[in-house]
């Protein structure tokens, strides 16, 4: 790590702590040349392998853009999308893998989107999973209904409340 003051090519770590978000490490460093102290933040980078073979850094913004299209006209806020993107990134980091295919990211988005908005989930899944017929939609709706019944209808109650609030 170069010193930001004198550009000396080395520094000594004085203190290391986990940052508030739990996803990065904050290190306090001191330059052996000029003696000045500075702080660095280290995060593990996630990379995405696109279908074309191009590798690029993971971007929460790109997750939000993709999901935003599925949420058009739905009662989903920008804050909801930002939280969804954060949860997707966290679930990817928990796997311990640093490089993902775009397919892996789509798989990571689906459960979070299903919890956020079932209609947006169906829209996203229909494109992402290449639904070819009404049977594919019916199977997806059946899965949603089964999951709702298994969870005691919590998602249904939230959706009905949201609809009632809109009227």
TrEMBL record:
Protein's UniProt keywords contain Metal-binding: yes
Cofactor remark from the record: Binds 1 zinc ion.
Keyword Transmembrane: no
Cofactor section: Zn(2+)
UniProt-listed PROSITE patterns: ATP_CONE
ATP-cone domain sequence ranges: 46-136
Zinc finger (unnamed) residue numbers: 3-34
Annotated GO biological process: negative regulation of DNA-templated transcription
Keywords: ATP-binding, DNA-binding, Metal-binding, Nucleotide-binding, Repressor, Transcription, Transcription regulation, Zinc, Zinc-finger
Family matches, as InterPro entries: ATP-cone_dom, NrdR-like_N, RNR_NrdR-like
GO molecular function: ATP binding; DNA binding; zinc ion binding
Family to which this protein belongs: Belongs to the NrdR family.
Role of this protein: Negatively regulates transcription of bacterial ribonucleotide reductase nrd genes and operons by binding to NrdR-boxes.
Name of the protein this chain belongs to: Transcriptional repressor NrdR
């Amino acid at each position: 790590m170069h010193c930001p003051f004198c550009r000396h090519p080395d520094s000594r770590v004085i203190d290391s702590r986990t940052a508030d978000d739990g996803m990065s490490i904050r290190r306090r460093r001191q330059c052996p040349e000029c003696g000045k102290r500075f702080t660095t933040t280290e995060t593990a980078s996630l990379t995405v392998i696109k279908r074309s073979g191009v590798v690029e850094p993971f971007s929460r913004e790109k997750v939000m853009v993709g999901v935003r299209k599925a949420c058009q006209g739905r009662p989903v806020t920008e804050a909801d999308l930002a939280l969804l993107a954060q949860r997707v990134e966290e679930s990817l980091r928990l796997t311990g893998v640093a490089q993902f295919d775009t397919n892996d990211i789509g798989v990571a988005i689906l459960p979070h989107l299903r919890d956020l908005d079932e209609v947006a989930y169906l829209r996203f899944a229909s494109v992402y999973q290449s639904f070819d017929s009404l049977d594919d939609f019916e199977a997806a709706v059946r899965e949603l209904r089964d999951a709702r019944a298994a969870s005691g209808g919590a998602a249904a109650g939230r959706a009905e409340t949201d609809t009632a609030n809109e009227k």
